[in-house]
Amino acid sequence: MSHVCPLCRHAAVQFYYRDKFRSYHQCDRCALVFVPAEYHLTLDEEHAYYDLHENSMEDEGYHRFLSRCAAPLLEELAPASDGLDFGCGPAPLLARILADGGHRVELYDRYYAPTTGALKKSYDFIVATEVVEHLVSPGDELACLWQRLRDGGVMALMTKLVISAERFTNWHYIRDPTHICFFSVQTFHWLAKRLGAELQFADSDVIFLRKSGVYSE
Question: Coiled coil located at which positions (predicted)?
Answer without folding.
Answer: none
